[in-house]
């Protein structure tokens, strides 16, 4: 197909919502929100391309996939740029949280070993986190 699934969805939605008197590209002129309000439609949302979805799941939703190894191009092609940007940001954020988690675990172990909450690592950890 020459279009990504997200492009096909955007084109269909545009054709449904474009006014019928548009000279360049006449559409259906539907106000989808009104149709939902009038109970003519329950909701409108795109259906999944099952084959593409399964392929993306096999590549993306594996236990051994690290946050920085996400197939961003395939996510963008399937869901769109905004959602791919969100998952890219989330992977980046999760990756950098690993360092804080390791520092927190070391500080916790120091507290347990010293049997106190005033370990010498607490101020260092607080400075690192701040």
Tell me the layout of helices and strands.
Blueprint lengths: L4 H13 L14 H6 L12 H11 L11 H8 L1 H34 L7 H8 L1
Helix pairs in contact: 4-5, 5-6
Features:
2 domains; elongated; Anoctamin; 6 helices; 62% helix; mainly alpha; membrane; Anoctamin transmembrane domain-containing protein; 130 residues
Gist?
The chain is an all-alpha fold. The chain is built from 6 helices and no strands.
Verbal overview:
This protein is an all-alpha fold and 130 residues long. It folds into 2 domains: 47 residues, no CATH class; 82 residues. The chain has 6 helices and no strands. Helix 5 packs antiparallel against helix 6. The longest helix has 34 residues. The radius of gyration is 24 Å and the shape is elongated. The protein starts with a helix and ends with a helix.
DSSP helical segment count: 6
Fraction of helical residues: 55-70%
Report mean pLDDT, rounded to a whole number. 86
Oligomer: single chain
What is the overall silhouette? Answer: elongated
End-to-end distance: 50 Å
Largest sheet report: none
Query: How many beta-strand elements?
Result: 0
Order of H and E elements: HHHHHH
Q: Which consecutive residue ranges, at least 5 long each, have pLDDT under 50?
A: none
Please, how many domains? Answer: 2
Structural class: mainly alpha
Rg over CA atoms, rounded to whole Å, is: 24 Å
- Beta fraction of the residues? under 5%
